[in-house]
Each structure stands twice: as structure tokens, then as C-alpha cells.
Amino acid sequence: xxxxxxxxxxxxxxxxxxxxxxxxxxxxxxxxxxxxxxxxxxxxxxxxxxxxxxxxxxxxxxxxxxxxxxxxxxxxxxxxxxxxxxxxxxxxxxxxxxxxxxxxxxxxxxxxxxxxxxxxxxxxxxxxxxxxxxxxxxxxxxxxxxxxxxxxxxxxxxxxxxxxxxxxxxxxxxxxxxxxxxxxxxxxxxxxxxxxxxxxxxxxxxxxxxxxxxxxxxxxxxxxxxxxxxxxxxxxxxxxxxxxxxxxxxxxxxxxxxxxxxxxxxxxxxxxxxxxxxxxxxxxxxxxxxxxxxxxxxxxxxxxxxxxxxxxxxxxxxx
Length: 319
Fold this sequence. Notes:
Layout: H1 4-50, E1 68-75, H2 86-98, E2 102-111, H3 116-132, E3 138-147, H4 149-154, E4 159-162, E5 167-169, E6 174-175, H5 181-187, H6 211-236, E7 251-253, H7 254-260, E8 265-266, H8 269-277, E9 282-284, H9 291-298, H10 303-311, E10 316-317
Parallel strand pairs: 1-2, 1-9, 2-3, 3-4, 3-5, 4-8
Antiparallel strand pairs: 5-7, 6-10
């Protein structure tokens, strides 16, 4: 039989354990509430960021109903999955043409070039839109770089301008890749490729290069180059002072490009707006990706595509 003092001690111990348990439960609840609030706050911020595009094309009348110069930026590589894709550029250009307060369009270019297909789409659309609004001038301003496919797009403008130190031109076509045949032989790796069609695997970097296939591929590049040159000639007309190396893929400074007729003058976007369109107001119609797409890109969702393009992709590029 327990003595009274023993029972008292057991009761105090039990009471203490119960009190400690209650304190721990309250502490756990407080931390649980804290983390729930933190999580909901995070989700709220994320949803708020992603609710609308980051920077869609400017809406008409964004200059308060006053006349302005519309601007569309051609920045970075020109490709279907890049910010300077034909879809994005054409969307912004169309909205600029549709805005009756816009006095003209300035293409602000800073790009090394890219896909001839994407550049061709933009070139053709600018030409088409100019027919629908003949009194709407289109200018191109090359900032640091307007090379290859970027110059292809610029050639659709009524006039092209650049800085004296800008890099302009590079009117050429390249199709590049890698060959790993010798490396595979040294490593003892056997390539197994099953195709239907004699030349179906002719761009495979793991197969030996054949002379007839190389000749064929060079012919494809030559045709693409010819198309590029024709569009530049159509756009620039008799302003070009052609030289043997004008269409060789070389690139020139703004001063040299002016002498060759590749550009019409030396100017910046704001200067051009003042002098040619008589306005200080610029409205940017460039279509931007939404925040979610931008975040996914930063997290490296395109890493696989990047590695693939380095080791396997052998597509045609204007540069």
C-alpha cells in the first residue's frame, strides 16, 4: 500500500507531465500556424506574380491619346522558343500598326541573328503590313549588334540606322555540328542506327561523313544564303554599294556599314523619334513572356534542349 506522500509525488509527476505535454502541443500548434501562414503567403505572392503576363504589348492610347513612336525590340537570338520569336515580334508589330496614335515604328535591334525561317516570317509580315498602311514609316535602329538574321529583319524597314561602333552585317548562313566517330572508336562504343532511306541519318554526328552528303548540305546552305541576299537587295535597293565580300558573312562597324549602304545613317532610337517622327514619346509594344515562363527558364527547364543543341542539333542558322 502506497504511503500518502508517495501518492502525492506520483500525482505531482503526472501533473507535470500533462502540463509539459500541453505546452508542447501549444508550441507545435503555434509553429504549425506560422508555417501555414508562411506557405499561404508564398502561394499568394506566386499567384499574384503569375496572374498576368509580365509585360504584354502596350495597349493603344497608352501615351494618353498623344502621338508617339512605337518601339518593338528584337533582342537576343531569333528562334521559335526565344523571346525574339516570329510570333512574339509579329504580335507587337501588328499592334503598333493598328494603333492610330502611333506615328511610326522603330525596330530596336540588338541580336546576333538566328533562324532564317523566323527572320523570314517577320520580314514578310512587315512588308505586308506596310502595304496596309503606306503612310506608316518603319525604321530599324541597330544598337550593339545587328547581325545575320537580325539584319535580315532590319532590311524590311524603310531606313536602317546604327551607332558608329555598332556591328552590322554578317550576311551569311551556317550549319554546324560535331563528329564523334573517332572518339567512339577509341572508347570501343558501337553506334547502332536503324533508318529507312539511304540518307536519313546524314546529319548524325556519330556516323562518318560522306562526301556526297556534305555536298548536298552545302547546296542547301547555298540556297538559303541566296534567299537571304535577295531579301537584302529587295529591302535596300540601289542604296547598296555591293562589294565582293558584302555577302560573305563578314561584319562591319556602323561607319563602314554606312559607306557600304547597309545602313542609312548614324542615330539612336530617341534621336530618330525626334528627328524623323517629331516626337519625344516612345511606347514599347514588345511582347514579353509571362513570369511563370521566365521563372521556368531560370530554373533550367531548357537545360536539356541546350545540351541537345550543343551536341546534336545541326540546324541552319543565319550568322
